[in-house]
Specification:
CATH class: Alpha Beta
Number of domains: 1
Largest sheet: 2 strands, antiparallel
Shape: extended
Oligomer: single chain
Strand content: 5-15%
Strand order of the largest sheet: 1-2
Number of helices: 6
Helix content: 40-55%
Radius of gyration: 21 Å
CATH architecture: 2-Layer Sandwich
Structural class: alpha+beta
Length: 143
């Protein structure tokens, strides 16, 4: 019997396993974790180069303005910070701009939530706007 099964399996064509698809929640989790880990090198007042988280200082600056400014300032995420998988899932798989904005708002909202849970839920979440941009087209206005 074992010999028969082995001969049957040898004759079968290889099975192509479909690529692993991310759910919406998995995409939000991965995007948040990826954005939270991104660092950039800046020079401080003493001329020393130090690594700082890229999106936390931006969130810290914007958290005081988002609730009161009209229109609220946008949180800008650099497309070049995405790895290949995030780029494919977010930019290629999600075809609706509204759905993409919802995913971005959820992921970026978690950064604000880490800074100040109450402020995020009471005054930032409803006004948060996130925009994707390439680094070449953006000037740093806060640093």
């Amino acid at each position: 019997m074992v010999g028969f099964l082995n001969s049957v399996f040898r004759k079968m064509a290889p099975i192509e396993i479909p690529r692993y698809l991310w759910t919406r929640e998995k995409l939000i989790d991965e995007l948040f974790l990826h954005l939270a880990r991104i660092s950039e090198i800046v020079t401080n007042e003493n001329g020393e180069k130090i690594a700082v988280r890229k999106y936390y200082p931006l969130a810290t600056e914007l958290e005081r303005w988002i609730p009161i400014a009209r229109p609220p300032p946008e949180f800008i995420v650099d497309k070049s910070d995405f790895n290949d998988r995030l780029r494919k899932e977010l930019l290629d798989e999600i075809t609706s701009d509204d759905a993409r904005q919802d995913v971005l708002k959820e992921a970026v909202g978690r950064i604000f939530e880490n800074l100040n849970f109450e402020r995020h839920h009471l005054s930032i979440a409803r006004n948060l706007k996130v925009r994707l941009e390439c680094a070449k087209t953006r000037l740093h206005s806060f640093f």
